[in-house]
Amino acid sequence: MKYCEPRPILDTVDYVERLREQWAEQLPEVDTSVADVTARLRRIAGLLDARVDAALDEREVSRPELDVLTALRRTGRPLRAGEVTTLTGAPGASITKRLDRLERAGLVARTVLERDRRGVVVELTDAGRALVDDVFPRQLALEEDALAGLSADDRATLAALLAPVLRRLDPVER
After folding, report:
1. 3-state secondary structure string, 101-140?
2. Has this prediction a pTM greater than 0.90?
């Protein structure tokens, strides 16, 4: 397929348009139009992650650790480590390392179940709950700022367009 010149949405050229122009010079026979969506999604996710990471630096918590804390907070109950793995989509070994770190920081507590000595549940401590209740709204504010140029209708349309893509790719949703 032939390269199609991307149509700028505004008067400026963004990262993806520059990327496509470069590929058009190097591999003009390759259709890079899919990057209009996929590369923008990756770039937006990376930039948002960097902003959240910067906000978390002062709290000495990483974004993957925040994912564990928010999973515990939104369910409102103690969880088995396997449930945390499912809710976050992270590998079990990664969750174990994150839980170790969060426990040392006093943000989660692990308890061995009496009825099944092999079973361990994890719950937020008061400090962990306070951290999530402070940081999560700030994360949402960063995301709100990123979407400030879109109307409520545009946001709803974008969400509706992205939902089937996520369902197709996300093993949790299958």
Report:
1. HHHHCCCEEEEECCCCCCCEEEEECHHHHHHHHHHHHHHH
2. no
